[in-house]
Design a protein that fits this description.
Elements: E1 2-8, E2 12-18, E3 24-31, H1 38-55, E4 63-70, E5 73-75, E6 80-84, E7 89-92, H2 94-102, E8 106-110, H3 111-122, E9 131-136, E10 140-146, E11 149-150, H4 182-185, H5 187-200, H6 205-210, H7 218-224, H8 228-252, E12 256-260, H9 268-281, E13 292-295, H10 301-309
Length: 311
């Protein structure tokens, strides 16, 4: 049998049909097109799921279950998205709505948790029982797998790892606190840090290379070109990432800690200094068993595969 995995994001609704070996055999996607009513979004989720099944050369009779990864607080017991800021869902009975449209069992969890499950069953953490997965994107997302299962706390709002504070009274965060890891280690934060450095150093090589267009690659490209301002931005940014990763290791001591997001395309330019910081500062430096740091393996497919695995 096959399962459908739906990755509901703020930009796209991505759907995949997943086989028993966690391979995606059919896909479809559409724009989330925010803002709009939840009923319209769910209708497109159903429509896109049927398209994915058709593209796989299957029928709904071949589908055993459907899983959904959704941003926000997702109550797996009630089937409600209790709150999703970006999607503007408030106690939305998403599971019931999808059951009505698809006539299949439906399972749901937070999108970052689901991506972590995907890496655990088929990606960088395959074969281990305990792992933490971090995504460095617009924000900092995180998922925790303990004994092969998603940890979501007593109220389905656990593992908001990006909202641990690393700088007291620091940069404001969208969550309402100040100094969150997300405010320093996300790709958005890197772009902001780069822009500030260019403003303070308008004659730098980095400013010349940017030409008024700052991206997450700007500082890394400037560093490779020999710009000291670019190097300072990169070194500081990596230090911020490391601060949070060390916290995750100290709290959970996972077998694997994997990180994903576009910034990971930097490869060892990013990973090597992160390992150095971790080796120096982790509390468990004298333990025989150490957490393995690696890059997430599934990319954008982690959410689809993890959602399918919920069932």
């Amino acid at each position: 049998m096959y399962r459908i995995g739906i990755d509901l994001g703020g930009t796209n609704i991505a759907v995949g049909v997943v086989d028993d070996n966690y391979q995606i055999v059919g896909r479809a996607k559409c724009k989330t097109a925010l803002p709009r009513p939840a009923e319209e979004i769910v209708a497109d989720m159903v429509k896109t799921a049927f398209e994915a099944v058709k593209n796989a050369g299957l029928t709904m009779d071949d589908i055993a279950a459907v899983g959904v990864g959704c941003p926000g607080t997702c109550n797996g017991d009630t089937g409600e998205v209790e709150y999703s800021n970006n999607l503007k869902f408030d106690h939305l009975p998403l599971v019931a709505m999808l059951k009505d449209g698809l006539q299949k069992p439906v399972f749901m969890d937070n999108d970052a948790n689901v991506a972590a499950l995907g890496e655990a069953v088929a990606g960088a953490a395959k074969g281990v029982k305990n792992c933490v997965c971090i995504t460095l994107g617009t924000g900092v997302g995180g998922g925790v797998i303990i004994d092969g299962k998603i940890y979501s706390g007593s109220n389905f709002a656990g593992a908001e790892l990006g909202h641990t504070v690393i700088v007291v009274d620091g940069e404001p965060c969208n969550c309402g606190r100040n100094g969150c890891w997300e405010a320093y280690a996300s790709a958005t934060a890197l772009i902001r840090q780069t822009a500030r450095a260019i403003e303070a150093n308008p004659d730098s090589k980095m400013a010349e290379m940017a030409g008024g267009n700052v991206s997450g690659r700007t500082a890394f490209d400037a560093m490779r070109a020999g710009c000291p301002v670019g190097r300072q931005v990169v070194d500081t940014y990596i230090r911020y990432i490391a601060a949070g990763l060390i916290d995750m290791i100290n709290i959970f001591q996972p077998e694997v800690l994997c990180i994903g997001g576009g910034i990971c395309n930097e490869g060892e330019t990013l990973m090597a200094p992160l390992r150095e910081h971790i080796e120096k500062e982790r509390y468990s430096k004298y333990s025989k068993i150490q957490t393995r740091l690696c890059v997430a393996a599934l990319g954008n497919d982690a959410g689809i595969i993890g959602a399918a695995a919920l069932g």
